């Protein structure tokens, strides 16, 4: 008896390889998937402006990166001796306005380079609910400011389509080789309310469909549908009943790599994963001869892989451990 409603995901027409240069932006699910790709030694930049949930805010940031815009000082605020900006997550902070401007400029430049030289842009949408500051306008994060300063509202589909189509259409001319993968985060935003979250996710899914229809460079990966249909059980949620468990993330990750990676890339990925597992190995007796031999073999593998991937820190760690035996 089959206990799940499985569905197949077609292979990407523009798959990811180890030669790809990738920019991933969006919700905390983008962080999770991006971290896995970074650990697997892909060349990827993940959420340079911190976690961003709303499509229109992502569009603004991408537009800023395209034109290398300076920080709008009208959105700077101070809290607990740190400076933040309404256009980014609280991860982007500084001890002065000048330092915040410098950090912004660095992230803008880095993002621009990953767009200019990149092969793939991954955007993960979290919610269609948006907070608008009474003076600044739409914000990426409220930074724990008084709720009276903001108005919360659902964003109309037409606006989100227009915002993203504008910037992605510009990308198609400025960066014609850039492929764009859209996905809707499976993380539930139930603080907005259960019906409100469902309305939000529905709008985001239609947004992805509209952009895919309008732009040849856009494709869609169904992470939300995998969670809702194949993993529709609370055992696949953490205790907060909002975030997917590690088991659920692993399942979605397997679907991702099998649809988005080339066969050759999968083989290399599996080899790197095996080495990462060996690096995490904790021996019963760290001083045994067998463990020394294990480390020597591991170092040889790392040095071979280091010809193509950056394993410098890992080689240093293993070498220092081996030196401790002498």
UniProtKB/TrEMBL annotation:
InterPro entries: GSCFA. It comes from the Bacteria. Residues 288-315 form a coiled coil. Keywords: Coiled coil. Residues 21-256 form the GSCFA domain. This is GSCFA family protein. It comes from Algoriphagus ornithinivorans.
